[in-house]
Structure formats: C-alpha cells, structure tokens
Amino acid sequence: MRFRDVYKNNLFMLKFVWKYYKIYIITSILISFSSILTPLADVLGPKYIIDFISQKKPFTWIVTVVILIFSIEILKSIYYSWYYKFITPRAHNKIKGGINNLLMQKAASLDLECYENADFYDKYTRALKEADIRALSVVSSTRDFLLSLVYALTLFGVIVTLDPILLLISVISMLLSSLFGLISGKCQFKYERLLTPFEKHLNYIKRVFYEVQYSKEIRIFPI
Questions:
Q1: What are the boundaries of each domain within the chain?
Q2: 94 touches 77 (CB < 8 A)
Q3: Rounded to an integer, what distance in angstroms lies between the CA atom of residue 105 and that of residue 189?
Q4: How far apart are CA 30 and CA 15, in angstroms?
Q5: I want to staple 146 with a disulfide (CB 3.0 to 4.6 A). Which of 4, 32, 81, 221 is the partner?
Q6: What is d(CA 88, CA 143) in angstroms, rounded to the nearest whole number?
Q7: The dihedral of CA 157, 159, 162, 164: what is its sign?
Q8: Count of alpha carbons within 13 angstroms of residue 47, beta-carbon side
Q9: Closest Cα to residue 106, out of 86, 131, 83?
Q10: In sequence order, what DSSP letters do the residues of the chain get, joined into one string?
Q11: At residue 147, does pLDDT exceed 90?
C-alpha cells in the first residue's frame, strides 16, 4: 500500500472520529504537543541545576528550577490521567457505537445478492471486525507519531545547544526506529488480509449455530 493511500485512509478514519467525538482529536493533539516539555524538564532542568551549583549561584535559583520541573510533571500527570481515564473510554464508546450503527444501516440497505459474492463478503467481514478499532487505532498512532516528532525536534534543539555530535546518534536511532515500525506495519497488514477468509467462515458458522433465525439455513455454495 502506497503512502498516499495510507494517508487518505487515515484521513478518512479521522473524519469519522471528528464526527462522533471532536474533543478526542483536540485532546490528543494537546497530548502530542505536551511532549515539548519533557526534554526541557528532563535535560535542561538538571543541566541548569548542576551549572548553578558549580557556579555557586544563589540557592533560590536552584529551588526555582526544581519547582518548575516539579510543576511541569504534576500538570502532565493530571492531564494524562484525565485524558486516558476519562476522555479515552468515552471516546471509545461513542466512536464504536457510531461506526457500528452506520455499518448496520449500510448492511440493511444492501441487496441480499451482495452477500453471495465472496469478495464482497470478505470486505464486509473485515469492515465489521476492524472499522471501529481501526478508527481508534488511527487516532492513537497519529497521536503517538506527532508526540514522537515533537519530542524529537525539541530534543534535537536541546542537543544542538549542548553537543552537536550527539545529534547524529539521535538521528540514526530515530531513522532505524521508523524503518522497523514501517516494516512491522506492512507485515501486520498482510497478516490481517490473509486471516480474513478464515474469520469469515468462522463467523458464519457461529451465526448459524447460535442464532435462531439462521438455524434452518443450509449453504450449498462457497462463502
């Protein structure tokens, strides 16, 4: 799958998330940009403390830096807790409910002849299984990508001010991580495509076996 197709598919899914729960997108973006604070607190903060001690600066300077670092960590902890324990569960319920309801309406409007087409039924099975999960996955992966990007850019800026040689090591590490992530994503996509026909048969057997309205139905053609 080309990058352009991946971009279009992800944008399509994000539109559904925006439709059903806008605040989830907004808070996810804020989570991503909050990563700017991490390198500042974790790298520059200790550096300033050590510099102030070595330069015998007033003790109040050191206390000020410590308070700033502590305040940043407390605010991040409160926001992250609110996002993951309140916003995320509500978003999952609203988005899954909205997308599944839309799929059921679409399925009810289709002609029964469509379900006799094996290729269509493969896509239908995959849509039922992945639509809501994929939408949530797109949000989380986009959030994590932006978080990593913002964090890396901020960290690079901090490193350049401290020691430019360390920047090269960080760039190589990030490129290798991105490459392995891309390979892993492609392998996962191929695996899910290969698994779809088997899940289609299994789901059909479950429906016929457990649901009364299908108990008298006999299939004499491939599904």
A1: 3-214
A2: no
A3: 27
A4: 18
A5: 32
A6: 12
A7: negative
A8: 11
A9: 131
A10: --HHHHHHHHHHHHHHHHHH-HHHHHHHHHHHHGGGHHHIIIIIHHHHHHHHHHTT--HHHHHHHHHHHHHHHHHHHHHHHHIIIIIHHHHHHHHHHHHHHHHHHHHHHS-GGGGG-HHHHHHHHHHHHHHHHHHHHHHHHHHHHHHHHHHHHHHHHHHHHH-THHHHHHHHHHHHHHHHHHHHHHHHHHHHHHHHHHHHHHHHHHHHHH-GGGTT----S--
A11: no
For 80, the token pair is: 């992250």
pLDDT tens profile 86-143: 999 998 888 888 887 887 787 777 776 666 666 776 677 676 667 667 788 888 888 8
Determine the Cα–Cα distance for residues 126 and 222; give it in Å rounded to an integer.
18
**8 A C-beta contact, residue 177 and residue 45:** no
- Predicted confidence band of residue 166 (pLDDT cuts 50, 70, 90): low
Predicted pLDDT of residue 86: 92
User: What percent of the chain has a predicted confidence (pLDDT) above 90?
Assistant: 7
pLDDT confidence of residue 82: 93
**Nearby residues of 71 by Cβ (< 8 Å), 6 or more positions away:** none
